[in-house]
Amino acid sequence: MSLQPTLAVVEATRFRAHDPAYHDYVQLLVGNVIAEARSHGWNVTRLAADRGAEGLLAAAGDADGIVIVGGEDIHPGFYGGETGYANESRHLPVADGAQIALVRAAIERRIPLLGICRGLQIVNVALGGTLLQDLGDEAGHVNRGVPIPQVLTTHAVHPERESRLAGLLGTGPVDVRSAHHQAVDALGADLVVTARSHDGHVEAIEHRDAPLLAVQWHPEDVAAPAGQLTALLAGLREAHTSRTARTAAA
After folding, report:
1. Does the pTM of the predicted model rise above 0.85?
2. Is the pLDDT of residue 152 over 80?
3. Angle at 154 between CA 152 and CA 158, to 5 degrees
4. Is 162 a catalytic residue?
């Protein structure tokens, strides 16, 4: 076994030629996750989910940790919804299905997983949850009508005491950088809400048993509070260390 644990950073797609500004911004955010992880000893592999479930599971199934990053809306067909809602983005159903399969495999194998923004929604949908399809332009979770680098807004979230999240970021309130127009509606099986925003929307979830934590915001944004991404990745590393110790003792 390598002394350097492997981390699969999984995005929906690497190709967004239809929207160069959005593509460039996503590359910046994903690059920040990769750079921070590498600086803390992870051997990082970057993977795109639009390769399909079989390819993604083959590439990421043996990773020591997984991060599912942000991106487009999940196709409503995966959670019993309909298309045609306000502010609907393009959909990548192959990537959706692959990431859903990866979440389920990670839970089964107890692979530590961190979800970021879309990653939280993928986790919820993978476990049978649903989504509020649009929070409305006045909800304060995303800026509209501005250049892509300015879409993120800052607001507070309130971690639940005794949660893994509170152990990493404190009991709050915690300022976060946010750019989402959807949110958790019905909660998926075996998930618990561990943070809500100023208006009550779900901002973090954890699995009751598996080493899974997901946040609805972007700790990797350049304007995020210092140390926030570091703390969440440290939690992933701690979960990997615990899993390795349990395996060795078995």
Report:
1. yes
2. yes
3. 130
4. no
